[in-house]
Amino acid sequence: MPTRTRTYRSALRSEQAAATRQRVLTAAATCFADRGYHGTSLADIGARAGVSVETVKANGPKRDLLLRAFEQAFTGAEGDAQLADTDAAVELIALPDPDAFLEGLTGFIAQANARTSRLWIEFLSAANTDEHVARALDDLLARRRQDFNRLAAELIERGIAPQGTDLEEAAAALSFLWSPESHQQLVLQWGWSDERYVRWLADAARRPL
């Protein structure tokens, strides 16, 4: 019995630690988007998350919190996994109908961009002045390039993208058109509705890229 009790308590502590980390990253994303990277302190993040500054520090330095907060906000989980390997993407890829696949994919991208468009701008800004953030950004962009190559391949294989579409050019175009910046400009600045934005994302995939 003592061993089982210790195992239970250890599992409970791990779950509590994971929940606290998720709360810290969610708070960090909000603070960075609202106050900017340089305008946000660890105390701000702790206050938003309802935890102590020591707890925030235990979850990593500010530059790491920025990266992990973005990952969590975009895909739903932090880490170096490719977007195409997430549970949501695997479910979408399993859809046999091309229209259902595109509808689900553009809905996912639109929601992810809505959660991260302001945070992404702060990420780019921080990379200009912090070499550690710049390296993290380079790694993230490399993963993003791989993701969009895989997404473009799916669109071409399913006949959604026009026949004869060049894979490399399609991936580059989608990375540009489906970026958080597009949400920033079209929804936040131009006032497009979420529905109009999703339609635009889908139309972009069907046009010659």
Protein model, in words:
There is one protein chain. The protein has 209 residues and is mainly alpha-helical. Helices cover 77% and strands 0% of the residues. It has ten helices and no strands. The protein has helices at 2-35, 42-49, 53-58, 62-75, 87-93, 98-127, 131-157, 167-177, 180-189, 194-206. The radius of gyration is 19 Å and the shape is globular.
Helix content: over 70%
How far the N terminus sits from the C terminus, by CA atoms, comes to 63 Å
Which of globular, elongated, flat, extended, rod-shaped describes the shape?
globular
In angstroms, what is the radius of gyration? 19 Å
Tally of DSSP β-strands: 0
User: Structural class given helices, strands, pairing?
Assistant: mainly alpha
Order of helices and strands: HHHHHHHHHH
Question: Sheet with the most strands?
Answer: none
Strand content: under 5%
Could you tell me the mean pLDDT? 90
Number of helices: 10
Q: Stretches where pLDDT falls below 50 for ≥5 residues?
A: none
Keywords for this entry:
77% helix; mainly alpha
Give me a quick take on this structure.
This protein has 209 residues and is mainly alpha-helical.
Question: Helices, strands, pairings?
Answer:
Blueprint: H1 2-35, H2 42-49, H3 53-58, H4 62-75, H5 87-93, H6 98-127, H7 131-157, H8 167-177, H9 180-189, H10 194-206
Helix pairs in contact: 1-2, 1-4, 1-6, 4-6, 4-7, 5-6, 6-7, 6-9, 6-10, 7-8
